[in-house]
Specification:
The chain has 13 helices and no strands. The structure holds iron/sulfur cluster.
Amino acid sequence: MDYRSLRRSVAGGLDRLEAAFGRPRLGRSLPPLDELILTILSQNTNDLNRDRAFRSLRQAFPTWESVMEADPARIEEAIRCGGLAHIKSRIIQEVLRRVRQERGRLDLDVLRRMPAEEARRYLSGFRGVGDKTACCVLLFACGHAAFPVDTHIHRVARRVGWVSSGATPATSHAVLAGLIPASRYLVAHVNLITLGRRLCRPRNPDCPACPLRRTCRHARRGRPPLRGAPRPMARAGRPA
Ligand code: SF4
């Protein structure tokens, strides 16, 4: 498929996802530094536990200053429900110390005024902050055009055929950011994650129920029956 056809196919797929899942809006609007800490807490856990850990941290420590200066064991305790508490507590304190040292205050609002690429490079310079985390901060808190690719989006994109099946997460990010119009980044990000969680699960994807099944490379190869279609009869002479 040439690039123009692929872009059309992606646009059609996003239309079908919007028809199925709607046009979700972001339910939060946090300052960039808060969004960064929230996204660090989201690593290797679900949204519910991420939010619980963030709330618990804010309740235990009213300011980022107090988090920065706290005994790491107390932070660990506060965010334990989000998993990987030992690592995350250290990363959060390192981020806060570096922001304070480089910016003179615990505030990253400057990212909103930086060019997106510069802001992404700045964030990616922190230990424990990868491309996905940086893009989440840029998209959700800074209003920049950035397309975060998480594990669900990476899996869906490879199965559908929007990126090659052997693509790395970095390649998926680069390819998808070019294929998807910037104006659709937010809705596409949320809907692809919804698809990955509900239907295109790591194991046993529910292809018959999927809005992308007709154009999906994985579904075509596996040829799962369309939902509601009669199952093919077993051939005579072969075990059913
Ligand atoms: S058709 Fe199946 S493999 Fe393809 S995106 Fe949908 S659930 Fe995933």
